[in-house]
Design brief:
Immunoglobulin-like; six-stranded mixed β-sheet; 18 strands; globular
């Protein structure tokens, strides 16, 4: 599971001891087929103690809260308690929105983990550390061009001067792990990122890339790392 994580720290009276315990989600992303009535996400509490959890969806605002977040989904339950070593199923239901039918739309599922209050700390000032996890939710229409398993067939690599670019020609978001290009007869590894359908991502280089191809590694729906060779357009 690959998740973006940020620590939200609050100083509270009567709060609990800080914790970085792990409540994990199955998979590295959520795919919501456009014709689905609902999809489920499974959580597992790997701690030896219970955690209170809060969940919500947003449209890309990393600073969103359950009160400010906006996304066309209903999520149940939005807040719940997980016993030690227990599981919980979240259910997402699309509530309707005017989204493109020729490409994916991306949203974010937020999971906030609130650890328990430590005994004897109710009357003292403590620091509580709550761990927020964010997972991509892809709303996916049917019949899109390309496939998450063959992104090398729908991605174009090009170079202009000392700038290297990738263009995603598919209807899917391309989750690029990294790209290896040749500069001055040496391999250079470029960190990847998510490229939207029809979008281009550019990387500045210290020298002009050479060679006729590059090696790209991307992540598919199952979280597997796949690699393929792309022709390099000069």
């Amino acid at each position: 599971m690959s998740l973006g994580r940020s620590l939200l720290t609050f100083a509270l009276i009567g709060a609990c001891l800080s914790s970085q315990a792990s409540v994990v989600m199955t998979g590295n992303r959520v795919v919501y087929p456009a014709d689905a009535k609902q999809v489920s996400v499974q959580l597992t509490n790997q701690d030896d103690f219970p955690n209170v959890m809060q969940a919500w969806l947003d449209s890309g605002d990393e600073r969103s809260t359950p009160q400010t977040a906006r996304a066309p989904f209903m999520l149940t339950p939005p807040m719940f308690r997980m016993a030690a070593h227990s599981g919980q199923t979240l259910r997402l239901q699309f509530t309707g929105a005017d989204l493109p039918q020729d490409k994916e739309s991306v949203f974010w599922l937020n999971i906030l983990q609130i650890p328990p209050v430590a005994k004897g700390s109710e009357a003292s000032n403590q620091m509580i550390v709550m761990l927020r996890s964010r997972m991509k939710v892809f709303w996916r229409p049917a019949g899109l061009q390309g496939s998450p398993d063959t992104m090398n067939q729908t991605t174009t690599a090009s170079v202009s001067g000392r700038q290297f670019s990738l263009t995603n020609n598919s209807g899917y978001y391309a989750s690029i792990a990294h790209v290896v290009v040749t500069v001055a007869n040496k391999p250079v590894k470029l960190d990847g990122e998510m490229i939207a359908p029809g979008a281009t991502k550019a990387w500045p280089l210290v020298g002009k890339p050479s060679g006729d191809s590059v090696q790209m590694t991307w992540i598919n729906d199952q979280g597997a790392y796949l690699s393929g060779t792309l022709p390099l357009k000069h």
